[in-house]
Amino acid sequence: MKVSVLAVGKPRGGLESVIREFEVRAAHYWKLDIEEVGSGSGRRSSQDLKAVQAKEGKRLLARVPKGSEMWALTREGSEISSVALAEALAGKALQGVRGITFLVGGAFGLSPQVLERADRRMSLSPMTLPHELARLVLTEQLYRAGTILRNEPYHKGSS
To answer: Which of 26, 97, 150, 156 is the most exposed place for a label (fewest CB within 10 A)?
Structure first.
């Protein structure tokens, strides 16, 4: 099963190398595809929030692979443990799902259009996370899910 991460913006600064490291690690367990789309805000931060979300949402939706389930990352989504995520991914693979695409919004989050089309809304935390940090947590959890499914020693928690 292919796992895709569609994210608004490119990681910068200190998180960039850590995100890339976990993408490489996760790719050992999943057919992993990472794609970044441009931010809808351009260089002016005073643009309307809804307009920015709509632009970013259109860019994201246009890149979702055909036949892939869409899992939107949003603070309002359902929380899931590391083990439950691993089990959910394994279950989808057994069901013959072609792929799962995780959608990571930009600074203003995902558009209502993206959230409406999502097959699942998932929360990484009830707290608001910067989109780069959300991407780091997601890629680390994809790596962790792979190690859990292969019973490798990385995951130390019970759930």
So the answer is: 156
